[in-house]
Design brief:
Helix 6 links the parallel strand 2 and strand 3. The chain has a 7-stranded mixed beta sheet, sandwiched between helices. The radius of gyration is 19 Å and the shape is globular. With 269 residues, it is an alpha/beta fold.
Protein backbone atom coordinates (compact mmCIF):
# COMPACT_ATOMS: atom_id res chain seq x y z
CA UNK A 1 0.00 0.00 0.00
CA UNK A 2 1.36 3.45 -0.89
CA UNK A 3 2.43 6.22 1.50
CA UNK A 4 0.93 7.22 3.91
CA UNK A 5 -1.23 4.07 4.19
CA UNK A 6 1.94 2.05 4.90
CA UNK A 7 2.14 3.75 8.31
CA UNK A 8 -1.36 2.84 9.53
CA UNK A 9 -0.19 -0.28 11.40
CA UNK A 10 2.80 1.53 12.95
CA UNK A 11 5.47 -0.80 11.51
CA UNK A 12 8.78 -1.07 13.35
CA UNK A 13 10.64 -1.41 10.05
CA UNK A 14 9.86 -0.49 6.45
CA UNK A 15 12.03 -2.36 3.98
CA UNK A 16 12.64 -0.85 0.55
CA UNK A 17 14.46 -2.99 -1.97
CA UNK A 18 15.73 -3.03 -5.50
CA UNK A 19 14.53 -5.97 -7.60
CA UNK A 20 16.93 -7.00 -10.36
CA UNK A 21 20.13 -8.58 -9.06
CA UNK A 22 18.98 -8.00 -5.49
CA UNK A 23 15.82 -10.07 -5.03
CA UNK A 24 16.82 -12.06 -8.09
CA UNK A 25 20.19 -13.66 -8.73
CA UNK A 26 20.42 -12.17 -12.22
CA UNK A 27 19.13 -8.94 -13.72
CA UNK A 28 16.12 -9.25 -16.04
CA UNK A 29 16.97 -6.06 -17.94
CA UNK A 30 20.57 -7.17 -18.41
CA UNK A 31 19.33 -10.57 -19.60
CA UNK A 32 17.04 -8.95 -22.17
CA UNK A 33 19.84 -6.68 -23.40
CA UNK A 34 22.54 -9.35 -23.49
CA UNK A 35 20.41 -12.00 -25.19
CA UNK A 36 17.84 -10.08 -27.24
CA UNK A 37 19.36 -6.60 -27.54
CA UNK A 38 22.73 -5.02 -28.35
CA UNK A 39 24.74 -7.38 -26.15
CA UNK A 40 26.77 -7.64 -22.96
CA UNK A 41 29.88 -5.69 -23.97
CA UNK A 42 28.01 -2.51 -24.88
CA UNK A 43 25.78 -2.81 -21.81
CA UNK A 44 28.75 -3.10 -19.43
CA UNK A 45 30.35 -0.04 -21.02
CA UNK A 46 27.09 1.83 -20.42
CA UNK A 47 27.14 0.82 -16.74
CA UNK A 48 30.71 2.10 -16.40
CA UNK A 49 29.86 5.36 -18.14
CA UNK A 50 26.88 5.89 -15.82
CA UNK A 51 28.91 5.24 -12.68
CA UNK A 52 31.50 7.80 -13.83
CA UNK A 53 28.74 10.33 -14.67
CA UNK A 54 29.51 10.35 -18.40
CA UNK A 55 25.87 9.54 -19.22
CA UNK A 56 22.65 9.47 -17.22
CA UNK A 57 21.11 6.19 -16.18
CA UNK A 58 17.95 7.32 -17.96
CA UNK A 59 19.66 7.59 -21.36
CA UNK A 60 21.69 4.41 -20.93
CA UNK A 61 18.69 2.31 -19.88
CA UNK A 62 16.53 3.71 -22.69
CA UNK A 63 19.13 2.58 -25.24
CA UNK A 64 19.27 -0.86 -23.65
CA UNK A 65 15.53 -1.41 -23.85
CA UNK A 66 15.18 0.12 -27.33
CA UNK A 67 17.66 -2.48 -28.58
CA UNK A 68 15.22 -5.25 -27.61
CA UNK A 69 12.75 -5.84 -30.47
CA UNK A 70 11.14 -9.07 -29.19
CA UNK A 71 7.35 -8.86 -28.50
CA UNK A 72 6.73 -8.04 -24.86
CA UNK A 73 4.75 -11.19 -23.93
CA UNK A 74 7.61 -13.29 -25.31
CA UNK A 75 10.09 -11.26 -23.24
CA UNK A 76 8.13 -12.10 -20.08
CA UNK A 77 7.95 -15.79 -21.01
CA UNK A 78 11.70 -15.99 -21.58
CA UNK A 79 12.45 -14.13 -18.37
CA UNK A 80 10.27 -16.51 -16.34
CA UNK A 81 12.35 -19.35 -17.78
CA UNK A 82 15.74 -17.75 -17.08
CA UNK A 83 15.59 -15.45 -14.04
CA UNK A 84 16.18 -17.08 -10.65
CA UNK A 85 15.13 -15.88 -7.20
CA UNK A 86 17.64 -15.47 -4.39
CA UNK A 87 17.04 -18.76 -2.52
CA UNK A 88 16.45 -16.98 0.81
CA UNK A 89 14.19 -14.13 -0.30
CA UNK A 90 11.06 -16.21 0.12
CA UNK A 91 11.97 -16.79 3.80
CA UNK A 92 12.51 -13.05 4.24
CA UNK A 93 9.20 -12.23 2.59
CA UNK A 94 7.33 -14.74 4.78
CA UNK A 95 8.95 -13.26 7.93
CA UNK A 96 8.06 -9.74 6.82
CA UNK A 97 4.39 -10.68 6.38
CA UNK A 98 4.26 -12.41 9.77
CA UNK A 99 5.78 -9.36 11.50
CA UNK A 100 3.95 -6.67 9.52
CA UNK A 101 7.12 -5.28 7.98
CA UNK A 102 6.14 -3.66 4.66
CA UNK A 103 8.34 -4.63 1.72
CA UNK A 104 8.34 -2.04 -1.06
CA UNK A 105 10.06 -2.84 -4.36
CA UNK A 106 11.69 0.22 -5.95
CA UNK A 107 12.92 -0.63 -9.39
CA UNK A 108 14.36 1.02 -12.48
CA UNK A 109 12.81 -1.86 -14.39
CA UNK A 110 9.23 -2.37 -15.55
CA UNK A 111 6.24 -3.16 -13.35
CA UNK A 112 4.64 -5.88 -15.54
CA UNK A 113 7.92 -7.81 -15.70
CA UNK A 114 8.53 -7.53 -11.95
CA UNK A 115 4.97 -8.53 -11.06
CA UNK A 116 5.09 -11.53 -13.41
CA UNK A 117 8.42 -12.71 -12.03
CA UNK A 118 7.42 -12.28 -8.37
CA UNK A 119 4.23 -14.29 -8.81
CA UNK A 120 6.07 -16.91 -10.89
CA UNK A 121 8.97 -17.26 -8.44
CA UNK A 122 7.19 -16.82 -5.08
CA UNK A 123 3.53 -17.62 -5.69
CA UNK A 124 0.19 -15.81 -5.72
CA UNK A 125 0.87 -14.20 -2.32
CA UNK A 126 3.38 -11.94 -4.10
CA UNK A 127 0.59 -10.33 -6.09
CA UNK A 128 0.09 -7.72 -3.35
CA UNK A 129 3.74 -6.60 -3.06
CA UNK A 130 3.94 -2.85 -3.56
CA UNK A 131 5.98 -2.09 -6.69
CA UNK A 132 7.12 1.41 -7.63
CA UNK A 133 8.68 1.21 -11.06
CA UNK A 134 8.51 2.24 -14.71
CA UNK A 135 5.77 1.12 -17.06
CA UNK A 136 5.55 -0.30 -20.57
CA UNK A 137 3.42 1.21 -23.35
CA UNK A 138 2.66 0.46 -26.99
CA UNK A 139 4.79 2.21 -29.57
CA UNK A 140 2.81 4.53 -31.86
CA UNK A 141 0.90 2.49 -34.41
CA UNK A 142 1.88 -0.83 -32.82
CA UNK A 143 1.02 -3.06 -29.86
CA UNK A 144 3.22 -4.73 -27.25
CA UNK A 145 2.63 -8.19 -28.71
CA UNK A 146 4.23 -7.17 -32.01
CA UNK A 147 7.90 -7.11 -33.02
CA UNK A 148 9.42 -3.77 -31.87
CA UNK A 149 5.97 -2.86 -30.53
CA UNK A 150 6.72 -1.64 -26.99
CA UNK A 151 8.74 0.99 -25.18
CA UNK A 152 9.53 2.25 -21.69
CA UNK A 153 7.40 4.84 -19.98
CA UNK A 154 9.58 6.42 -17.31
CA UNK A 155 8.05 7.21 -13.94
CA UNK A 156 9.49 10.74 -13.70
CA UNK A 157 11.68 13.29 -15.50
CA UNK A 158 14.82 12.69 -13.45
CA UNK A 159 18.16 11.55 -14.82
CA UNK A 160 17.31 8.12 -13.41
CA UNK A 161 13.94 7.82 -15.16
CA UNK A 162 12.74 6.65 -11.78
CA UNK A 163 14.27 8.55 -8.90
CA UNK A 164 13.84 6.07 -6.05
CA UNK A 165 14.55 8.73 -3.45
CA UNK A 166 11.19 10.37 -4.28
CA UNK A 167 9.35 7.35 -2.86
CA UNK A 168 11.46 7.08 0.30
CA UNK A 169 11.80 10.75 1.17
CA UNK A 170 8.14 11.37 2.22
CA UNK A 171 8.56 8.88 5.08
CA UNK A 172 11.52 10.75 6.56
CA UNK A 173 9.77 14.10 6.04
CA UNK A 174 6.61 12.81 7.70
CA UNK A 175 8.42 11.96 10.94
CA UNK A 176 10.62 15.05 10.85
CA UNK A 177 7.39 17.04 11.16
CA UNK A 178 6.04 14.72 13.89
CA UNK A 179 8.96 14.13 16.29
CA UNK A 180 6.70 12.62 18.98
CA UNK A 181 5.40 9.81 16.78
CA UNK A 182 7.15 6.40 16.86
CA UNK A 183 9.39 6.31 13.80
CA UNK A 184 10.01 3.08 11.89
CA UNK A 185 13.53 2.14 10.84
CA UNK A 186 13.93 2.59 7.10
CA UNK A 187 16.10 -0.05 5.40
CA UNK A 188 17.10 -0.50 1.76
CA UNK A 189 18.78 -3.30 -0.21
CA UNK A 190 20.39 -2.80 -3.59
CA UNK A 191 23.29 -3.68 -5.83
CA UNK A 192 24.02 -1.19 -8.56
CA UNK A 193 23.76 1.99 -10.57
CA UNK A 194 19.99 2.36 -10.37
CA UNK A 195 20.19 2.44 -6.55
CA UNK A 196 22.38 5.55 -6.35
CA UNK A 197 19.41 7.88 -5.89
CA UNK A 198 18.10 5.82 -2.95
CA UNK A 199 21.42 5.24 -1.20
CA UNK A 200 21.27 8.35 1.03
CA UNK A 201 17.59 8.14 1.95
CA UNK A 202 17.29 5.32 4.50
CA UNK A 203 18.80 4.61 7.92
CA UNK A 204 20.86 1.68 6.66
CA UNK A 205 21.70 0.35 3.23
CA UNK A 206 22.35 -3.31 2.44
CA UNK A 207 24.80 -3.26 -0.50
CA UNK A 208 25.47 -6.46 -2.42
CA UNK A 209 29.02 -7.79 -2.21
CA UNK A 210 31.14 -7.24 -5.29
CA UNK A 211 28.83 -4.69 -6.93
CA UNK A 212 28.98 -1.02 -7.88
CA UNK A 213 26.89 0.30 -5.01
CA UNK A 214 29.62 -0.43 -2.43
CA UNK A 215 32.08 1.73 -4.38
CA UNK A 216 29.59 4.61 -4.36
CA UNK A 217 28.80 4.29 -0.64
CA UNK A 218 32.48 4.27 0.34
CA UNK A 219 33.14 7.33 -1.82
CA UNK A 220 30.15 9.27 -0.47
CA UNK A 221 30.39 8.17 3.20
CA UNK A 222 26.94 6.52 3.25
CA UNK A 223 26.26 4.00 6.09
CA UNK A 224 26.00 0.50 4.66
CA UNK A 225 26.51 -3.15 5.36
CA UNK A 226 27.42 -5.85 2.88
CA UNK A 227 25.17 -8.77 1.99
CA UNK A 228 25.71 -11.82 -0.18
CA UNK A 229 22.16 -13.17 -0.03
CA UNK A 230 18.86 -12.62 1.78
CA UNK A 231 19.81 -15.06 4.52
CA UNK A 232 22.18 -12.44 5.93
CA UNK A 233 19.67 -9.64 5.34
CA UNK A 234 17.01 -11.58 7.25
CA UNK A 235 19.37 -12.28 10.16
CA UNK A 236 20.42 -8.63 10.47
CA UNK A 237 16.88 -7.30 10.03
CA UNK A 238 15.61 -9.65 12.76
CA UNK A 239 18.31 -8.39 15.14
CA UNK A 240 17.36 -4.77 14.42
CA UNK A 241 13.66 -5.60 14.76
CA UNK A 242 14.24 -7.32 18.12
CA UNK A 243 16.56 -4.58 19.41
CA UNK A 244 19.57 -6.91 19.62
CA UNK A 245 21.80 -4.61 17.58
CA UNK A 246 21.92 -0.96 16.54
CA UNK A 247 22.16 0.61 13.12
CA UNK A 248 25.50 2.14 14.11
CA UNK A 249 26.93 -1.26 15.05
CA UNK A 250 25.73 -2.85 11.81
CA UNK A 251 27.18 -0.01 9.70
CA UNK A 252 30.54 -0.23 11.52
CA UNK A 253 30.69 -3.98 10.85
CA UNK A 254 29.81 -3.33 7.22
CA UNK A 255 32.68 -0.90 6.79
CA UNK A 256 35.09 -3.39 8.38
CA UNK A 257 33.96 -6.12 5.98
CA UNK A 258 34.39 -3.81 3.00
CA UNK A 259 37.92 -2.91 4.08
CA UNK A 260 38.80 -6.58 4.63
CA UNK A 261 37.51 -7.40 1.15
CA UNK A 262 39.63 -4.63 -0.38
CA UNK A 263 42.71 -5.92 1.47
CA UNK A 264 42.06 -9.46 0.23
CA UNK A 265 41.83 -8.18 -3.34
CA UNK A 266 45.10 -6.27 -2.99
CA UNK A 267 46.79 -9.33 -1.49
CA UNK A 268 45.80 -11.56 -4.42
CA UNK A 269 47.00 -9.09 -7.07
Amino acid sequence: MPFPDTLKKNPKIIFFTDFDGTITLNDSNDWLTDNLGFGEERRKQGDADTLSNKVTFRDMFWEMMESVKTPFPECIRLLCENIKLDPYFKDFYQWSRENEVPVIVLSAGMTPIIRSLLVHLIGPEAADVEIVSNEVVDKPGKTKDQEDGWQLKYRDDSGFGHDKSLTIRPYAEHFAKRPNEPRPTLLYAGDGVSDLSAARETDLLFAKKGHDLITYCEREGIPFTIFEDWQSILATTKEIFEGKTSLKEVAAEGMEKAQETEQDIETTK
